[in-house]
Amino acid sequence: MNTNSNTYTVIYSIILVVIVAAVLAFAAMFLKPTQDANVKKDTIGQILTAATFPGVEDAAILDTYKQEIESAILVDFDGNKVGELNIEECEVYGNSDLKRQITADPKALPVYIFKNGVTVVPCYGAGLWGPIWGYVGLEKDLKTIKAVRFGHKGETPGLGAKISDEPSFAEAFVGKTVGEGEVIFEVTKPANRQTENNGVDAISGATITSQALGKTLDQWFGFYQNYFAKNGITEVVDAVIDVEPVNSVEE
Amino acid sequence: MANIKETFLNPIFKGNPISVLVLGICSSLAVTVQLKGALVMGLSVIIVTGISSLICSLLRNTIPNRIRIIVQLVVVAMMVILVDQVLKAYAYSVSKTLSVYIGLIITNCIVMGRIEAFALGNKPFASLMDGLGNGLGYAMILVIVAFFRELLGSGTLFGFQVIPQAVYDFGYMNNGLMILPPMALILLGCVIWVQRSIQKDLQEK
Questions:
Q1: Phi first, then psi: what are they for A234, rounded to 5°?
Q2: Nearest neighbour of B65 by CB, restricted to A3, A41, A158
Q3: Looking at the whole model, is its pTM more than 0.90?
């Protein structure tokens, strides 16, 4: 047979491509459930880190989550509860779900409340080369940041990738607060900072990733602002209210 | 049989794809920060070179000459995607650290080079051995470089601390340069240097 004729070449390539496509499609379908389970486990691992349970081993992630979570709810833009996530099945909002919420109206934003008092909220946005996302653990006042965990698809290794693999960057968030009004949160160099405690320093050499992260956090904290305002428990403010009536009586 | 043994063993030292043929340098710089990643990358390349050489050798008499590079590419790409999918399902954390580099095995010159130079002109079993041998030669260099980079750059091996805290207390510090790609190139140069001083026939006059 003449293996150099046009007909042979065309038929050969068609058959080859069909066989390869079939093999790959089969493999993708067969492995999909396991891969999805891995992605979900990874997401829960990140949520746990933000809830101050870092470094949980792979096998223990689901059990730890079930054990430590108090409730996982969905809230709308006004801060009202609109749904609930199944804890027994470890239902969480993955990156694709979060992406949908950015433009969705009405929104259904996930809030993970842990037994240790930490509330974890997610964020998702565009970085320099691909998506970036993160989980922020807040204290009971829903203002002060307790722990964070960021992730990215393909930021520059050694520069933008530091948002996820540089421990000191995550540590810088601890104790910072979510602001109100014009600037809710910013990640920029100190000279450009407009607020005192509602931001952290950018990573040098990774200006665009830092700015993108700041923008993403600002946007998502904005989504949650009404929820934070309604549900934040501020012990200090309570104390002030207690004191005021006493003063007025004295007057 | 002796010939096949030679085919398998030659690329591991005497005709090593990285240190003698200088193929696949790019990925060996990128994935050798940690031993674990280097090992998984090495295994992936062994599987890809071995099986795609085998498949191409089986098909060698039917492949139309004009599209042979494309056929090779399709076979290699299929193998790489399969490896990537399996890693994502069963070794998720490693697959996350290696990220794009598994996909980039497609562009690794060793794979295409061996298919074009060997598998298309030899019997399937010999081609399989040639592919496996070249993959193994590649993996070996990766592991050597990663061993020194992880040990001197992070003080760990496979993620376990091996340099004791007492040494750090004396003022020893991890070498930050080791983690960056330039040091991989320098280490690779040292490996080639060692090999050339052992194998005199490689030295240029």
A1: -110, 110
A2: A3
A3: no
- Give the C-alpha separation, A150 to A47, whole Å: 10
Q: Could you give the CA distance from residue B203 to residue B20 in angstroms, rounded to a whole number?
A: 11
Cβ pair A124, A220 in contact under 8 A = yes
Residues B85-144 pLDDT 10s:
999 998 888 888 787 788 888 888 889 889 999 999 899 999 999 999 999 999 999 999
Q: Please tell me which of the candidates A9, A24, A34 has its beta carbon nearest to residue B67.
A: A9
The strand pairing partners of A135, in sequence order, are A122, A149
Contact at CB, B89 and A35, closer than 8 angstroms: yes
Any bridge partners for residue A88, and if so which?
Answer: none
Q: Counting Cβ atoms within 10 Å, is residue B25 exposed (0-12), middle (13-18) or buried (19+)?
A: middle
Q: Report the Cα B116 to chain-centroid distance in Å.
A: 18
Is B5 in CB contact (< 8 Å) with chain A?
Answer: no
Residues A146-176: tens digit of each pLDDT = 999 999 988 887 788 889 888 889 999 999 9
Say which residue the tokens 């509602």 belong to.
Answer: A198
Q: What is the DSSP code string of A11-76?
A: HHHHHHHHHHHHHHHHHHHHHHHHHHHHHHHHHHHHHHHHTT-TT--GGGHHHHHHHHEEEEEEE-
ipTM value: 0.79
CA distance A151 to B102: 20
Token pair, residue A152, equals: 């990215």
With contact defined as beta carbons under 8 Å apart, do B145 and B187 qualify? yes
